[in-house]
């Protein structure tokens, strides 16, 4: 048996052990890939607290599904798909059960020079203000690189609807970014 601290397991070894229920291997997979899972669900959720919930759900689903992981695709691809599906499912569930709330934007002092952190904050704020469907399509297409057919399948819409939502989302983002924050 390999000493846990002397050698790092390869992904293949780690996955094989995790599939058999090895808690240390599961923790190792989490340590390796939790930031990546959180990043994808954060972009889809548009909110840190929701992203934490969606990431937790993604990990629960992934651990339950590990015995069925066949290795037809890379583990990261498989895990990414679970993360995206968990976030989309969470968004649909939340939309059905709550009213859509729009967070109040935080005012930015326009006297400061515009730098990358400010631009990033403004982009994230504008992204959060998009309706959920537009935001999901924009993130999946422009950030994650999904095709309209893949987005349509994942979200249960048509490819035409995906294209329309992307067009509207980009226009809305341009509009929000061209006007000062309120």
The largest sheet, given as strand count, sense and whether it forms a barrel, is: none
User: How many individual β-strands?
Assistant: 0
| Total of helices | 8
Oligomer: single chain
Global mean pLDDT = 83
User: Mind telling me the C-alpha Rg?
Assistant: 19 Å
Contiguous uncertain segments of 5+ residues? 1-6
Spatial gap, N to C terminus: 61 Å
**Looking at the structure, what is the overall shape?**
elongated
> In which range does the helix fraction lie?
55-70%
Give the H and E element order: HHHHHHHH
Beta-strand share of residues: under 5%
Which structural class is indicated by helix and strand composition? mainly alpha
Q: What's this, in brief?
A:
It is built from eight helices and no strands. It is an all-alpha fold.
């Amino acid at each position: 048996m390999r000493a846990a601290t002397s050698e790092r397991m390869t992904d293949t070894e780690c996955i094989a052990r995790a599939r058999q229920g090895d808690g240390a291997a599961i923790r190792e997979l989490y340590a390796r890939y939790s930031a990546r899972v959180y990043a994808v669900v954060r972009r889809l959720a548009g909110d840190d607290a929701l992203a934490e919930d969606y990431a937790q759900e993604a990990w629960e689903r992934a651990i339950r599904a590990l015995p069925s992981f066949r290795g037809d695709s890379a583990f990261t691809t498989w895990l990414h798909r679970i993360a995206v599906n968990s976030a989309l499912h969470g968004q649909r569930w939340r939309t059905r059960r709550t009213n859509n709330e729009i967070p109040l934007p935080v005012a930015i002092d326009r006297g400061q020079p515009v730098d990358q952190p400010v631009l990033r904050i403004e982009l994230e704020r504008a992204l959060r203000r998009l309706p959920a469907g537009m935001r999901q399509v924009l993130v999946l297409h422009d950030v994650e690189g999904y095709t309209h057919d893949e987005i349509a399948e994942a979200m249960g819409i048509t490819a035409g609807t995906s294209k329309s939502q992307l067009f509207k989302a980009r226009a809305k983002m341009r509009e929000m970014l061209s006007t000062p924050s309120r």
